[in-house]
Each structure stands twice: as C-alpha cells, then as structure tokens.
Specification:
With about 220 residues, the protein is α/β, with parallel strands linked by helices. It folds into 2 domains: about 90 residues, Rossmann fold, CATH 3.40.50; about 110 residues, 3 Solenoid (UDP N-Acetylglucosamine Acyltransferase, domain 1), CATH 2.160.10.10. Helices cover about 20% and strands about 25% of the residues. The chain contains 4 helices and 23 strands. Strands 6-9-12-15-18-21-23 form a 7-stranded parallel β-sheet, covered by helices on one side. The radius of gyration is 17 Å and the shape is globular. About 45% of the residues are buried. The structure holds coenzyme A (COA).
Length: about 220
C-alpha cells in the first residue's frame, strides 16, 4: 500500500469511526486540515459498515495487518471503547505511527486549551478555556467541557454530556450521554458514568456509577 507524505488513516468503521470520518470531511471542506484521507482500517468490519463507506466514497483499506507499518501515514484511532482504543493506540505507536487529531469546524475550543494527538472533537462540542485534553480523547457531538478541566488519555465523553470546570477525568474513563459531572470532582481512571447521571462526588477508579445523584 503506498501513500502521499501527508496521508491519514482512520481506524474503526463502526459508529464512532464514521462520526470521525464526518468530522474529517467537514474539517477538510472548511480548509482546516492539511492531510488527505487514504481510507479506513478495521479488523472486523461488518457488511453494513462497509456498504456505508462505499456510499460516501471512502476506501476500506483492510485490517491493521494489511496496513502494516507506514512511516508517512498518520492515524486517528476512532474506536469508541476507551480500553480497546488505548490498546490499539499503544500497538500503533509501537510500530512508529504518529497520531492526528480531528476537530469539527462547528466545535468551539477556548483559549489556552490544549488538544492531545489523536483526539477527535465532533460537531457542536464546546471546550472552554485552559482545558487539557490528553492523547486520544473522544468528545462526541454536543459535549461541553468546562474551564480548567483535565481529560487524560483515551477518555470518551458521550453526546451532550457536561464536564464542569476543574474536573479531572482519569485515563480510559467514559462519561455517558447527557451525564453531568459537577465542578471540581474527579472521575477515576477506567470509571464509567452512566447516561443521564449527575455526579456529585468523586468516582473511584474502575467504578460504574449511574442515576441522580450518581451511585
Ligand atoms: C450505566 C451503564 C454503564 C450500565 O451498564 P450495565 O452495567 O451493562 O447495566 P445494565 O444494562 O446491565 O443495567 C443494570 C441496571 O442498571 C439500569 N441502568 C442502566 N443504565 C442506566 C443509566 N444510565 N441510568 C440509570 N439506570 C441505568 C438498568 O435499567 C438495570 O436496572 P435493573 O437492574 O433495575 O433492571 C450503561 O447503561 C450506560 O449508561 N452507559 C452509557 C451509554 C451511553 O452513553 N450511550 C450513548 C452512546 S453514544
């Protein structure tokens, strides 16, 4: 497989993979991204997802093994599950790949905010000032991240969730759709906050919490 010096490959053809694709396409047509998409890699693509890629005219490139190790390709790992994403990312980095972030043109990113490599920020996301987004953070459509928050590597924030100011979300944690994490709290590494929850206390690492208030 050959590529131009600035090619991008998205890993994952599932739901979030195709949202990442839409994010790329919107950023590209707005002139906000300098890489060209080579196609999508997925180790276990479904027939339905392959047909959807076909309909939008994007190439399915095969599995990660088919891709091999190509120094001139950058990757956006668009696997929704934080743990799987973290593992796949580590494997890709060990092969020498670099990651590329994707930011939708309708997303708003505040001053002094840093976006780590491979992070994917979808349509309508609001990220306030002085936020730190680690490597491979996924912000789904309509999520809001408050001032001075820190989201560590491979965190997923699902649609319309609200992370308030000064919150810390530990690596590989997931915050479900429409959930709210109140200001100054910490969601531990690998924790899961259920959809619609309101988090009023720190969440211990690896714990699943849900409901209002979240328990
Ligand atoms: C909280 C969550 C992680 C729990 O997953 P789980 O451990 O597999 O839970 P189950 O589906 O087995 O449900 C267990 C119980 O919790 C309840 N429950 C599940 N999710 C809940 C939620 N978000 N809030 C309140 N209760 C919930 C179920 O109704 C069930 O109750 P019951 O025992 O009285 O029947 C999951 O349901 C969730 O909310 N994930 C986030 C999903 C999301 O954001 N989706 C959007 C994707 S874009």
């Amino acid at each position: 497989m050959t590529s131009s010096p600035t090619s991008l490959v998205i890993i994952g053809a599932g739901g979030f993979g195709r949202e990442a694709l839409d994010t790329y396409l919107a950023a590209k047509s707005a002139g906000l991204i300098d890489v060209d998409l080579l196609g999508i890699v997925d180790d276990a693509i479904t027939e339905q997802d392959a047909a959807k890629l076909d309909r939008v005219g994007v190439r399915y490139l095969g599995t990660r093994e088919d891709l091999g190790a190509q120094a001139r390709v950058r990757l956006a790992v668009a696997i929704g599950d934080p743990r799987v994403r973290s593992k796949v990312t580590a494997e890709c980095l060990s092969l020498g790949y670099e990651l590329h972030s994707l930011v939708h043109p309708t997303a708003v990113i505040g001053s002094l905010t840093t976006v780590g490599p491979g992070s994917i920020i979808c349509a309508g996301v609001l990220v306030s000032t002085s936020v730190r987004l680690g490597r491979g953070v996924h912000l789904n459509p309509g999520a809001t991240i408050g001032h001075d928050a820190t989201l560590e590597d491979d965190v997923s924030i699902n649609p319309r969730a609200v992370i308030s100011g000064n919150v810390i979300v530990g690596r590989e944690a997931l915050v479900g759709a429409g959930a709210v994490v109140l200001q100054g709290l910490e969601v531990g590494a690998g924790a899961t906050v259920g959809a619609g929850a309101c988090v009023t206390r720190d969440v211990v690492a690896e714990r699943i919490v849900k409901g209002v208030p979240a328990r």
